[in-house]
Amino acid sequence: MTGSGKQCAGIVQAARPGKYRVGLVLGSGLGTLADAVEDAARIPYTEFPDFPVSTVSSHKGELVAGRLAGQEVIVLAGRAHYYESGDPTRMRTPLETMKALGCEILLLTNAAGSLRPEVPPGFPMLITDHINFSGLNPLIGEESEARFVDMSAAYDKVLCASLRKIAADNEIPLGEGVYAWFSGPSFETPAEIRMARTLGVDAVGMSTVPEVIIGRFLGLRIAAISTITNLAAGMQAELSHVETKEMGLKGVGRLTALVTGLLASLDKDVADA
Question: How far is CA 184 from CA 100, 126, 234, 251, 254, in A?
Fold first, then answer.
């Protein structure tokens, strides 16, 4: 772990002492979930050394430490994307900060484009695996042997089983499948989407995969949910970030129910996990 993560953890502890269990990263249009955190300390990213400040309008850019659905949580209201700096390692310090604060579980959310008409805008999609189309890796340059991370079960099966049960119990339509990371910031072409569909991709987006790799490197258990904000290129008339933000907001209710349900269930056994 780098020194920056420990230093940032010290800043959080000074603002709100405690041991935290779950880290949560909020994607485009999903930042309102951070408002539900109770007994919260809210710290702008600008107060942390080596923390990336997102240039995306829908990413607030603050760390929230507090309690949500009975769990001590660290929430990142906004993330840095590869396309903002050309650096796939930019989320390493925030995730190392979570680890230094005691987090064992990492919940990732994002806005994504669906390749499946039956999983339309406004639906959540559970990510069960991913394809790294970018060819980039945030562990390039890491010198320790820990860089050889096993990604065969990157998405925790018990957490995924919990999310399926929560969705069923609350009658939330939950798609699931493979997420593909394209670097962005331009949207994919129809030809790229046809290629992705041929390879078994269910949703596409511009984030999350570097965080999953870093999270597994740090030994965190991971679950990830996409909020579908559009159908992919060639499946609707045009794509825009405005639509991404608007549909992200419409999906917040379902996402909130899934996330808070998962947090509340963490200490319970899950059948058929």
Answer: 30, 21, 17, 22, 26
